[in-house]
Amino acid sequence: MLALGIEGTAHTVGVGIVDGSCRVLANVYGMIKPEKGGIHPREAANHHAEAVVPLLQKALDVAGIGPDAVDIIAFSQGPGLGPCLRTVATAARALALTLRVPIVGVNHCVAHLEIGRGTTECEDPALLYVSGGNTQVIAFSRGRYRVFGETLDIGIGNMLDKFAREAGHGFPGGPVLERAAKESSTLLPLPYSVKGMDVAFSGLLTAAVNRMKKGERFEDLAFSIQETAFAMLCEVTERAMAHLENDEVLLGGGVARNRRLQEMVSRMATDRGARMFVPPGELCIDNGAMIAWTGLLMHRAGVRMSIEDTVVNQRFRTDEVDVVWR
Ligand code: ATP
Ligand code: FE2
Question: What would the pLDDT profile of 214-237 be if each residue is shown by its tens digit?
Fold first, then answer.
């Protein structure tokens, strides 16, 4: 069985094709990079509308198949930016109706977890999902993926991007900070904000920007931001793992590509006799393959949707999904 998945919740529009054993046959994407400032939902949606058809063709070419070989179409139903979600859902509906194949709407956050389970050896992990807009600790419990901890304000990636932007760097800021942090070992005190299972980053961001305006080195600030923010993430992830008696931790989201974060989470896991798993980078960021794979799991478990069921949900919560495939 072959599933084609279309992702488009935010900056990235992606098309992926996977088979029934989670072999990724194609995973192509395009990304809108804001010139300055943040992402504008309407502009991103226009970008996705122009990019999606060429990307569909490219994915089929990469996979070496024709459209008739596709058995189901999956798309990111939420959470995300309304105009982007609607654009991608429209493309998915048109394609499914044209090819006369089933359509499945997929929860984006759940897809980050499932692609990790599909492509690494982990079976029942706690997922630390760290991207631009999202920061959550998710794990399976009583038939659902539940959010055990999350950011109370901005996503960690947004925080890194905003700091880099204040310092005059382009988007994305995460990799810029990772490189700069390697040039420092000076830990400046920054607000460490963990509240129970949750984290908050806006105080840290404000403090770091203020220190920069007072002339502190960018490298020292990059290092200190990473050490402080990543320690917060390790703390809440460890607490969820202890609560669930979980011995696997999976990383997902664009920030999961950060080597220092991987090192810190891996150390935390090893210290408690657990293991860390990281999917390949192209499957950590927003991508169509994770949507295709989750759609395939859902379809195989008997989930069926009519076109009326494919309305997008900007605030689609992780624990709204009935995980019938586990
Ligand atoms: P979502 O819609 O799930 O919130 P997103 O649109 O933010 O996702 P992703 O591709 O998952 O997209 O993540 C992008 C984020 O990852 C950006 O904030 C970027 O700065 C960050 N990032 C990418 N590489 C690194 C890195 N090496 N270190 C830290 N952050 C990184
Ligand atoms: Fe994402």
Answer: 999 999 999 999 999 999 999 999
Render the burial of 224-233: b for 16+ CB within 10 Å, e for the rest. bbbbbbbebb
Q: Which residue has a Cα nearest atom 2 of ligand 1?
A: 10
Distance (Å, whole) CA 216 – CA 168? 15
**C-alpha span between 73 and 60 (Å, rounded):** 13
pTM strictly above 0.85: yes
Using alpha carbons, list the distances in angstroms from residue 325 to 156, 291, 306: 30, 15, 19
Nearest to 134 by CA among 170, 159, 167, 166: 159
| Position 39 confidence tier, pLDDT thresholds 50, 70, 90 | confident
What are the φ and ψ backbone dihedral angles of 53, each rounded to 5 degrees? -70, -50
* Secondary structure of 47-80 in HEC code, one letter for each residue: HHHHHHHHHHHHHHHHHCCCHHHCCEEEEEEECC
Give pLDDT tens digits for 121-158. 999 999 999 999 999 999 999 999 999 999 999 999 99
Give the DSSP H/E element, type plus range, for residue 141: strand 135-141
Q: How far apart are CA 112 and CA 256, in angstroms?
A: 11
* Ligand 1 midpoint to CA 230 (Å): 14
Residue in 85, 233, 255 to alter for ligand 1 test, most ligand atoms within 8 A of Cβ: 255
